[in-house]
Amino acid sequence: MQAVTTISSTCRQQLIDYALQQLPEEACGLLLAPIGSDTITVMQPIANRHHSRVYAFTFDAEQWVHYYFHASKLNLSVVGIFHSHPHEQPLPSEADMNGFFDQHMLYAIIGFNQKESPQIRFYRRSKNRFIDFPLVLT
Ligand SMILES: [Zn+2]
């Protein structure tokens, strides 16, 4: 599995912009890096199909599968997933703890508890907790 340590500033800004557009609903999608690279350069939005999108997210299953496999055609690999917290800090919620688990994935949360200065935090997951995993900005 690819060891990602860095995110491009363009991609970071795209995450914030996209999550802002989706307010008041949660935004979600994939984080991608060129195969063999340690840098996330692409974010791929996935439609949120949760019945209560203001409070939670569920990937559109068809899009998830499509973009997961489409990535390899672009020489990209899926290295993480992102979602936003429209009103909360970018800290993993209980729902996040019970959500999709892959110890190789990076988890990005965009938090809008302060609307003027949205924050992104990155995590990796072990079985029962999220571990802070700050990325270098390039
Ligand atoms: Zn969450």
UniProtKB/TrEMBL annotation:
It holds the Pfam family Prok-JAB. Coiled coil: none annotated. Residues 4-138 form the MPN domain. It comes from the Bacteria. Keywords: Hydrolase, Metal-binding, Metalloprotease, Protease, Zinc. The keyword Zinc-finger does not apply. InterPro entries: JAB_dom_prok, JAMM/MPN+_dom, MPN, VirAsm_ModProt. The keyword tRNA processing does not apply. SUPFAM superfamilies: JAB1/MPN domain. This is Mov34/MPN/PAD-1 family protein. It comes from Paenibacillus septentrionalis.
